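Running this now, will post back.
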Amino acid sequence: MKILFIINDAPGSEKTYNALRMAMALQKEQSSVDVLIFLMADAVTCALPNQFTPQGYYNIERMLKAIIARGGHVKTCDTSASARGIKELTFIEGIENSTMSQLTQWTIEVDKVLTF
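Update: finished.
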């Protein structure tokens, strides 16, 4: 089974955190599930490396790296990255800048789409 997560909120959002928590839980509890994550709008900033969070707070960069390490696929929206002036910046290793065409293709290929 393939599940696509479309995330729209910035790294500090509970929605982003909960989407990634669910993705990680799926990978842990259902090893046959293929997790795909598409970061859009303010969520493209989740792909930036060297995120710092105070002790006791969740770190989106660590969560994304864990998802990628377990075989998850993460892409960012090129248009959203361009609009925020981060298209030319380096993303977390394993995250690729992508297009609406890729999101469309993933949407057709997957079994479920979850939007946060």
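The mean pLDDT is 96. More later if anyone needs it.
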